[in-house]
Amino acid sequence: MKSVNRMKVLASVLSIGLLPSTVAIQTLAEELPKVYDASVPRERQIALAESAAPAEVSSKATVYVLGLRGYEKAREGTNGFSCFVGRHFVKPTETTIEPACFDAEGSRTLLFVYMHGEELRISGKSEEEIKADVAKGYEEGRYKYPSKPGFLYMMSSENRLSAITDQSSGIFPPHLMFYAPNMTTQDIGLDTQSLAKLDYLGMTHPGAGNNLIVVIPKTSMPPASPAGR
């Protein structure tokens, strides 16, 4: 899906205020399997996939579950969105868990990349081999970048985007991702160092065709009162 390494970097600069309580994070981490695979019950897979977006969206989306040979369509949708749970191996016995819902443009383009990547993963290919295949696929035209603005929901509270350590559960806050092909940090008025300091905004692949802007919603704050009032 997104660059997991880039998401690790973004996660490292998040303020604790964006995250659930320590107890809640620990509970979520304990409930999630170390390895997300076809052994996860079908209904649990569907629920995780649907948790990525508001119910108004995910209840009408096409939903995919992970089977023994790759992703299988569990339900045909009516709104053009596609929901599934992505994964990458971060350790030999541990994967990420990435509930996501693509809009129609992402379903037409990016979803195919993840579907094929999972077929390679199940066939025994390493994450580095899959990454190389994706890069080659874009070069050869087998894969297509989004041709217009759009976004995907990753608003689940059960996003585990990095390895579990003694210091971290790997849980990443609910967020939105916007297609931003070839956009650089300069295009949004920032340099790389300035962007890295922000705890609510990031980019996955600045300057590349598969670049995404990551936005982590914050609780809205009331406007400041005018001076003297």
Describe the overall structure.
- There is one protein chain.
- The protein has 229 residues and is α+β, with helices and mostly antiparallel strands.
- It has a domain at 21-174.
- The protein is 30% helix and 21% strand.
- It has eight helices and twelve strands.
- The chain has an eight-stranded mixed β-sheet with strand order 2-1-3-6-7-10-12-11, sandwiched between helices. Strands 4-5 form a two-stranded antiparallel ribbon. A two-stranded antiparallel sheet has the order 8-9.
- A hairpin with an 8-residue loop joins strand 11 (201-203) and strand 12 (212-215).
- Helix 6 (110-122) crosses helix 7 (127-140).
Descriptive keywords:
8 helices; eight-stranded mixed beta sheet; 229 residues; disordered C terminus; 30% helix
Helices and strands in order, then pairings?
Layout: H1 4-12, H2 22-31, H3 42-50, H4 55-58, E1 62-67, E2 70-75, E3 82-86, E4 89-91, E5 94-95, E6 98-102, H5 104-108, H6 110-122, H7 127-140, E7 151-154, E8 159-160, E9 171-172, E10 175-179, H8 192-196, E11 201-203, E12 212-215
Parallel strand pairs: 1-3
Antiparallel strand pairs: 1-2, 3-6, 4-5, 6-7, 7-10, 8-9, 10-12, 11-12
Helix pairs in contact: 6-7
